[in-house]
Design a protein that fits this description.
The chain is mostly helical. 58% of the residues lie in helices and 5% in strands. The protein is built from 45 helices and ten strands. The strands form two sheets. Strands 1, 2, 3, 4 and 5 form a five-stranded mixed beta sheet that branches. Strands 6, 7, 8, 9 and 10 form a five-stranded mixed beta sheet that branches. Strand 7, helix 36 (770-789) and strand 8 (799-800) form a beta-alpha-beta unit. Helix 12 (170-192) packs antiparallel against helix 13, helix 23 (475-484) packs across helix 24 and helix 43 (943-967) packs across helix 44. The longest helix is centred in the last third of the chain and has 26 residues, at 702-727. The chain is elongated, with a radius of gyration of 38 Å.
């Protein structure tokens, strides 16, 4: 039995407490004991029951001195009064307590912490003798003896190979519960008096659970009919039971495995399985049934193959077949803790031996990383928000963080190192440190935090013997917990401070332990750090989702090698950064991008300090680098823009007026056109990066992205136009020139991969020859396009004038009068439709507005287009579907031209505008969604249909943007390759490992939109 591990400030000095001053009043003496309700305390100590302990007049209050060490002195005093009242006088409890200060101390320790065990003692006063026997308590409880006690409590022979209880009725179950709580009382006394550490207590609680399961199985055997077919049944402990680390109150996780008895002839397997199922069910009832003595705990068999839907009992061969063919990663991880706990131990060991290979090959399976990430997310997201910050087990920095961390390291490295295969968390953690997979200092810190949190969890559960791991909010509950852990002067603040400190340490180490040891393979670390071999480092990276672990290690070496301040800061940053990269869809790109950015900026005085001191900036940088080639490329063109990642305000889209003002100022600062347009394009590049990060962090919606990207394009064209007017050599006052936005630019619906559609309109100033004006306008338009599309270090802005009259065969620029003549005589239906999205964006504002007034009658005819014209629109759309969809493209997954894609939605809206905008002003907008909403408001389309179209348009736009962000190249296809789909789904907010749902959602949403389109546009059905 270990010596007391309770710190000195927790250790009550029994003898010193045994003497209290007789010169103070009884009330003062009670207050010094830590009692809060002094009126009730005075009534109790002056009553007839406690008089047996403190004398008839309360003159021997020093007998109550041990109350000062109780977690809750008031609760202890109340329960002590009830216990003495329930105890027969001839038992001599009061007399024993008067002379045995240590026994009194152990009793009030239990009563002050556990109301449930106090109630048990009141019902069974003779059980207090467990606390009185100091010699027995000084010895660790033996698992063998505990098993004997529980089996004997149900009348079974502990020495029989298959013990059978003397019945299965309520009286037998009551005896079993009394024996269980008596044993629990002894464990709690050792725990609360500081005679054992948490891990020893957990082991004893597990031995007790094993004994209960064995006794429950004996009861189940007693309940079988006499003609039941024999069988072999093994009970396999899982979870905390299998790991020998149970709490005071836990669901006990088990798996049942059965076999026909091969030593008996004529037995068939189905009959044996029926018997085994009856035994398993009987065992579960014996433990969980509520009797006069209450219940014990639930036996949970849901970790079995197929969970609740699976058979309760399977043969060994059936288990092995399932794990070979169907099991998921989490099921293999659960098997790590499998241990025979009751029943046929030989069969149980055969089961463990048979499933062990599945555990240690789990990290090799495809999808291991995604499954592990999904499990980790599920743990945190399943915590109700109202209690998330009070969760000891599942919250950030909780027990599950420790267990998850240790188990994942075991699954990765235990494949080749058998020394790491212990199912017990603390034992496994120590092995990881001993064999160099975790630094010794980190392992010690994590073990200390784990012991503290588990001890706190034990104290929580002891109070009422209820399964809980949520910190209370009531002051009295927190005070009891704090005092039970030795915080006496200011128990509540001290407890909360210690808890938060340990939780922060767990979270820090949880993030660090996977990645810090990796650096050892490429850099020198301080003493005490883990020493992974290069092979072990590659294995860990591969298991965490890195496709090229050798390449990642080379980048780490380049970043961390040496003794410079830069290398030292990188060694501090990278453990956390590597974790963030691994959470992204492309960890390898994250590491490579980080190296490239660091190579550019690492020598600056601010870059690494920014990442070290601004964790939000570092996390966002990791997200960008591991998620978006597009954003990474923009960042590498100007690495200094990393500074905007530290400030939420910097990620908000800037308004058009601010962008226009900055573009004008940038042009004004440069006398030469080359420098001026370079400054304008640099502004655009910076704003594109801002918007990309805004999308990646979900700081802005798809509607905001379309607006903001269009504003950036407008500001870029406006700034470049000022330069082009000068560079083209146009004399001031020669012409007026305006740029008309068309297509997505006109609709303020640009995506990250969009070209900009424009038309150019000019007007000669009075007295200027039209030929001269035309030449000047042509030079301006050409210069503008050349400036914005020329190769440079900044991304080009592709300016497309293909929607002008006569298309690419028509003149690049026209005068306003030429447009008027053309539209009056030659305009085609498609041109009127294209003009629905026309709006002035740059140049002479008055000229632009006059152009819009010119085309309004064409795009918004007063009586609407004729039925013949509408038929022609439908015919053109059908022809486009059949001719323009790329060869081999899946029509269901093409975001622009596919079924239910952008084109379907936009053509429905545009046809309604052509038919009705002449009489319904709200339809006169260049934007798709506002026009759709106006059509629904006007009753031109049903609201549910409008909603279906809206959702499809939004989703298709989001997928196109995400595709550009992820891959750096524009694409109209929803990808089906797992890697690309995962990247896009991640940007759109789908959980890692759930990318397939994006495909399902896209097909479902666009299928509905297509049905609406065919009904509304083609008038089908």
């Amino acid at each position: 039995m270990p010596v007391s591990t309770r710190p000195d400030h927790e250790q009550p000095d029994r003898q010193a407490r045994a003497t209290m001053s007789r010169s103070v009043s009884p009330r003062t003496s009670l207050a010094r004991l830590g009692l809060i309700d002094l009126d009730r305390a005075e009534r109790l100590v002056s009553g007839p029951v406690l008089a047996r302990l403190v004398g008839p007049d309360g003159g021997d209050l020093d007998r109550l001195a041990p109350l000062a060490g109780a977690a809750d002195p008031d609760q202890a005093l109340i329960l002590l009064d009830r216990l003495l009242d329930a105890s027969p006088a001839d038992v001599g409890m009061a007399d024993r307590l008067r002379v045995d200060v240590d026994a009194m101390g152990r009793l009030v320790d239990v009563l002050g912490m556990s109301e449930a065990l106090g109630d048990f003692l009141v019902r069974h006063p003779d059980a207090w003798l467990v606390l009185a026997d100091a010699d027995a308590l000084s010895l660790a409880p033996s698992g063998t003896m505990t098993r004997r006690v529980l089996l004997e409590s149900v009348g079974a022979d502990p020495d029989h190979p298959e013990p059978i209880a003397d019945g299965s009725g309520p009286d037998v179950l009551d005896r079993m519960r009394v024996a269980y709580r008596t044993c629990l009382l002894g464990i709690a006394a050792r725990d609360l008096s500081g005679l054992a550490e948490m891990d020893a207590v957990a082991t004893w609680l597990t031995d007790l659970a094993d004994a209960v399961l064995e006794a429950g199985l004996a009861v189940a055997r007693a309940g079988l009919p006499v003609d039941t077919a024999p069988c072999r049944l093994a009970v396999i402990g899982m979870g905390k039971c299998g790991a020998r680390e149970l709490n005071y109150v836990s669901d006990v996780d088990v798996i049942f495995v059965a076999q026909a008895d091969s030593g008996l002839a004529g037995l068939d397997e189905p009959a044996a399985l029926r018997t085994a199922t009856a035994l398993a069910s009987g065992l579960m009832r014996a433990c969980s049934a509520v009797t006069a003595e209450g219940t014990i705990w639930e036996v949970d068999a849901n970790l079995r193959p197929e969970g609740r839907q699976g058979a309760l009992v399977r043969t060994l061969a059936s288990h092995v077949d399932y794990y070979q063919r169907w099991a998921k990663t989490w099921e293999y991880q659960a098997l790590l803790k499998a241990r025979p706990v009751a029943g046929d131990r030989e069969l149980g060991q055969e089961y463990v031996d048979a499933v062990s290979p599945f555990v240690w090959s789990a990290a090799d399976h495809e999808g291991f990383v995604g499954d592990v990430q999904a499990m980790r997310r599920r743990v945190e997201t399943n915590v109700p928000p109202r209690i998330a910050d009070r969760e000891l087990k599942l919250g950030p920095g909780g027990l599950r963080d420790v267990e998850f961390c240790v188990q994942l390291l075991q699954l990765v490295h235990g494949r080749s190192d058998v020394m790491l295969r212990s199912p017990t968390t603390l034992v496994a953690l120590e092995a990881l440190a001993v064999w160099g997979y975790v630094g010794r200092d980190d392992a010690a810190s994590l073990a200390d935090a784990y012991r503290f949190l588990r001890t706190l969890e034990h104290r929580l559960q002891l109070h009422r013997l209820r399964r809980t791991h949520t910190m209370p909010e009531a002051e009295a509950d927190l005070r009891r917990l704090g005092r039970s852990l030795g915080y006496r002067s200011d128990p509540v603040p001290d407890l909360l401070a210690a808890w938060k400190r340990h939780a922060r340490e767990v979270r820090r180490l949880h993030e660090k332990l996977f990645y810090r040891p990796l650096l050892q393979a490429v850099a020198r670390l301080d003493a005490g750090q883990a020493r992974l071999t290069p092979q072990a480092a590659e294995e860990r990276l591969l298991a965490l989702g890195y496709a090229d672990p050798a390449g990642a290690l080379r980048h780490l070496e380049a970043l961390t090698w040496g003794v410079s301040r830069r290398a030292a800061i990188q060694r501090t940053l990278l453990p956390v950064m590597l974790g963030w990269f691994a959470d992204g869809p492309d960890p390898d790109a994250g590491v490579l991008g980080f190296r490239r950015v660091s190579d550019e900026l690492g020598s600056t005085h601010w870059y690494l300090r920014l990442l070290r001191d601004e964790s939000l900036a570092a996390e966002r940088l990791a997200l960008v680098l591991a998620s978006s080639r597009y954003a990474t490329d923009l960042l590498l063109r100007a690495p200094e823009t990393v500074t905007m990642l530290a400030d939420d305000a910097e990620l908000r889209p800037r308004d058009l007026q601010a962008l226009l003002a900055e573009a004008r100022a940038a042009v004004a600062r440069h006398e030469d056109p080359t420098g001026a347009v370079a400054a304008v394009r640099a502004l655009r590049r910076r704003e594109l990066f801002r918007l990309a990060v805004s999308q990646l962090t979900h700081a802005s919606s798809i509607d905001q992205a379309g607006d903001a990207l269009s504003d950036v394009a407008v500001a870029t064209i406006s700034g470049a136009l000022e330069v082009a007017l000068s560079a083209a050599g146009t004399s001031p006052g020669t012409i007026r020139f305006s740029v008309i936005g068309m297509g997505r630019l006109g609709g303020a619906e640009l995506g990250f991969g969009s070209d900009v559609d424009v038309m150019f309109v000019y007007e000669a100033v009075d007295g200027v020859d039209d030929t001269e004006a035309n030449s000047a306008a042509f030079a301006i338009a050409n210069e503008l396009r050349a400036m914005l599309m020329a190769p440079s270090s900044d991304p080009p802005l592709d300016v497309d004038a293909g929607l002008r009259p006569e298309g690419r065969q028509g003149p690049l620029v026209r005068s306003l009068a030429s447009y008027a003549a053309y539209y009056e005589r030659w305009s085609a239906g498609w041109e009127a439709q294209a003009l629905l999205r026309a709006r002035p964006i740059a140049g002479d504002h008055d000229l632009g507005e006059r152009f819009i007034r010119l085309v309004d009658p064409l795009r918004y005819p007063v009586e609407g287009i004729s039925e013949e014209a509408a038929t022609e629109v439908r015919r053109l759309k059908a022809r486009m579907e059949s001719e323009r969809l790329p060869r081999g493209a899946d029509p269901a997954l093409h975001t622009k031209l596919g079924r239910g894609g952008l084109s379907d939605v936009e053509w429905v809206v545009q046809l309604l505008q052509l038919q009705h905008a002449g009489r319904i002003p709200s339809l006169r907008t260049t934007r798709t969604l506002p026009a759709l909403a106006a059509a629904a408001e006007a009753g031109l389309i049903d609201s549910p249909d409008a909603q279906s179209l809206r959702r499809a348009w939004e989703l298709a736009s989001q997928v196109r943007n995400a595709s550009m962000l992820a891959r750096g190249t524009a694409s109209d296809m929803v990808p089906t390759k797992a890697r690309d789909l995962r990247a896009i789904a991640s940007i759109l907010g789908y959980p890692m490992g759930d990318a397939g749902r994006l495909l399902d959602d896209y097909r479902r949403v666009t299928r509905r939109a297509r049905a609406v389109m065919e009904r509304v546009f083609y008038q089908a059905g």
